[in-house]
Amino acid sequence: MTRKLFEISAVVITIGLLLVFAQRTLGVHGYRLASGQPLWGDFIAFWSAGKAALEGHVAQIHDRVFLAHIQQTTIPGMHVMAPWNSPPPFLFFVIPFALLPYGTAAITWLILTGALYLFAASKILPDKRALIFAITAPAALYHIGTEQVGLLIAGLNGLALYWLDRRPRAAGALVGMLVIKPHLALLWPFYLALTRRWTAFLAAAVSVSVLIIGAGLVFGFESYVRFYENLKASQDLIARLGVGKQTFGSLFGNLLALRVPMPFAIAGHAVSAVAAFGAALWVFTRKVDWRVQGAALCSATLLLSSYLFFYDFVLLGLAAALLAPPRNKLETAAMVFAWLSGMSVAFSYAIPLPLCPFSAWLVLIAAILRARSEASRLASAPQM
Fold it and tell me: What does R_g of the chain's alpha carbons equal in angstroms?
């Protein structure tokens, strides 16, 4: 696929998605869509949890009946309930938005997280024209319809990687902020340690400690107990198909959606996760460019956790961007599938194929082969 053909296709698909989003807003009443869902989707969970914390009800933010009351008061007639499944430090991020009216808060969240994502992408992509890749990525665009943390997580990862050798303390501080979604930060300690980036490692440790201890002091350390007790309910969202199966992004979720028995789904995901973990560590120990290691970090991250949804795959687009421009057909395919992974939510209405994990594996394999090629070239270079 040529660059021009990809760009034309991306723009056409983007226009189609925007038209779908616009169509969904027809018949909107207040902030309630005609379907009974809230305008801006999952953001209502962030906003209502922040509001509950502001009003002194932090002990009840995992109480679905209590949170549903706030959401119904804000959006009367809403037919769904959006639970709060995040750890206490994330409250620091959402409480400022709860100071604003719901609509203003949602628009502000989208603008700020989108700006962070695009700023990080602009630092990583090879040229400004390549921003088309980031702007049109379906996983990113879907945040217009259901605001989540995908843009934020991708932005934090991208900027941390870019600053790692330029501003290691700032990079480490950004890595520490990933404690808001710890299952998406599992590989960072290994990466920083194996590449001996101790300044960033220490900064990340300080950042994590400040957020964890700070949240305990502000919201009560028992809030961590409540978060832990709520993990079973979070797990059931996928294990018991508690939300639409078309939203699943992990191999585990995709296999369950395909009616694969639970033990086999667990085994399949475990094998994939262990292989991805090992592959990422191998890339981390090669003397190769940080972009290649970053691509392995981000793609492997999306193969570890079983709790993933399509919007998390904004991070995969970032991983592919780190390998840009592609050097061969495999890398081109990896970039196309990484971009396309967010469309899994649409394709899965027909059949829930594991597009997201397949795409993540393509990018990871491309990173492995790039690392092997670079390491071999360095090894064969004449020593001075």
Answer: 21
The pLDDT tens digits of the residues spanning 314-362 come to: 999 999 999 999 999 999 999 999 999 999 988 888 787 899 999 999 9
Residue type, 76: P
Q: Is residue 379 part of a domain?
A: no
Q: Is 253 left (phi over 0), alpha (psi -120 to 50) or beta?
A: alpha
User: H-type helices in 125-221, by residue range?
Assistant: 131-136, 138-141, 150-163, 168-177, 188-194, 198-219
Q: What token pair was written down for 62?
A: 């995992």
* Residue 317, domain member (yes or no): yes
Compute the distance between CA of residue 152 and CA of residue 208 in angstroms, rounded to an integer: 17
What are the Cα distances from residue 108, in Å, to 12, 47, 94, 286, 374? 27, 12, 11, 41, 42
Tell me how far apart the alpha carbons of residues 349 and 201 are, in angstroms, rounded to a whole number.
Answer: 42
State both tokens at 283: 């890339």
- The tally of domains found in the chain comes to 1
The answer to whether residue 384 is domain-embedded is: no
| Distances from the Cα of 344 to the Cα of 45, 249, 295, 355, angstroms | 23, 8, 21, 6
Angle at 173 (CA atoms; ends 183, 228), nearest 5 degrees: 30
Q: Output DSSP code: residue 126.
A: S
Cβ(211)–Cβ(227) below 8 Å: no
Tokens of 178: 């990933």
Q: For residue 383, give the DSSP letter.
A: P
Has residue 10 been placed in a domain?
Answer: yes
Read off the pLDDT of residues 217-265 as tens digits, 9 standing for 90 and up: 999 999 999 999 998 887 877 777 666 778 899 999 999 999 999 999 9
Q: At 276, is the secondary structure helix, strand, or coil?
A: helix
- Give the C-alpha separation, 41 to 299, whole Å: 26
Distance CA 35, CA 27 (A): 9
Backbone angles phi, psi at 309, to 5 degrees: -130, 165
CB 92 within 8 A of CB 130: no
Structural domain of residue 256, as residue ranges? Answer: 3-374
Instruction: Return d(Cα 224, Cα 228) in angstroms, integer.
Output: 6
